[in-house]
């Protein structure tokens, strides 16, 4: 049985056909980076391809998540964590390559939102509130300088 399976795989590889077992997680985990290398690659991708506001939010989130998961001992959790972050990194790099260096993100699939738990929906809502504060020009922390109307121009 094993020999026939190998022959089938060789035939599939020779034809250049992808097997059904190659899910996005499988493809990402095929080329997993060690956590520290992945962390640095994520911050580098944010620095190179995200606008400043998105970069600061993304950097803070990545740092918090990696800090939260630094003491995980279960190898399955580590592989799952790294593969999901690798998929995110690949998405940023792919979108930056396809759109001349700018990353704009993508919309959430409504079917995916339907499967969210109440806690996940609450977290998504909190994220929406946090990002709307960051991108709202009325609530921006820095304001453009006010024009000097004193008439004392040098």
Automatic annotation (TrEMBL):
Xref: InterPro entries: SDHAF3/Sdh7
Keyword Signal (UniProt): no
Pfam families the record matches: Complex1_LYR_2
Positions of region (Disordered): 135-154
Keywords, sorted A to Z: Chaperone, Mitochondrion, Transit peptide
One GO CC term on file: mitochondrial matrix
Domain of life: Eukaryota
CDD domains assigned: Complex1_LYR_SDHAF3_LYRM10
Description of how the protein assembles with itself and partners: Interacts with the iron-sulfur protein subunit within the SDH catalytic dimer.
Family (UniProt): Belongs to the complex I LYR family. SDHAF3 subfamily.
Entry protein name: Succinate dehydrogenase assembly factor 3
């Amino acid at each position: 049985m094993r020999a026939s399976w190998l022959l089938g795989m060789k035939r599939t590889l020779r034809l250049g056909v992808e097997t059904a077992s190659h899910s996005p997680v499988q493809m990402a985990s095929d080329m997993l980076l060690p956590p520290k290398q992945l962390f640095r690659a994520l911050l580098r991708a944010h620095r190179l391809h995200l606008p400043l506001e998105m970069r600061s939010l993304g950097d803070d989130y990545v740092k918090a998540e990696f800090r939260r998961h630094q003491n995980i001992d279960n190898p399955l959790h580590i592989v799952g964590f790294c593969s999901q972050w690798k998929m995110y990194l690949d998405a940023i790099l792919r979108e930056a390559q396809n759109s001349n260096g700018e990353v704009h993100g993508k919309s959430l699939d409504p079917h995916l939102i339907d499967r969210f738990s109440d806690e996940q929906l609450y977290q998504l809502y909190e994220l929406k509130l946090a990002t709307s504060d960051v991108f709202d020009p009325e609530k921006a922390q820095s304001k453009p300088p006010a024009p000097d109307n004193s008439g004392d121009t040098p």
